[in-house]
């Protein structure tokens, strides 16, 4: 009986945690969402900055089948960073060294949620990705 109560309490506690995490995510507590619009040339322009150890914005929403011009650059600092997208099935595969602003052009071919990240890692330390340098590109129909 007692153990059942303990299990129920634990379940309630977990549900609370998950609810809290969902709210924190929706409020963008650790990042920002950018919803791309299609400009006069029919291109979705997106700018992303990478730094120690984040991408801003870290949640990008684009439309499928419309060209994207993604301009990536690095926040000042000595730590090298990259922007890696590895979703060849959706027409998106590139690995860019961040520095001066650089444009990457692609057309997302398939709706879905795709992760991007920095693939740098210093020796045996945590990778930049593990330190939070990652984000999601959401491709809508
Ligand atoms: Cu990095």
From TrEMBL:
The keyword RNA-binding does not apply. Keywords: Copper, Metal-binding, Signal. This is EfeO-type cupredoxin-like domain-containing protein. The keyword Signal applies. It comes from the Bacteria. One of its GO terms (molecular function) is metal ion binding. Residues 1-26 form the signal peptide. It holds the Pfam family Cupredoxin_1. PANTHER family: AURACYANIN-B (PTHR38439), COPPER-RESISTANT CUPROPROTEIN COPI (PTHR38439:SF3). Residues 41-121 form the EfeO-type cupredoxin-like domain.
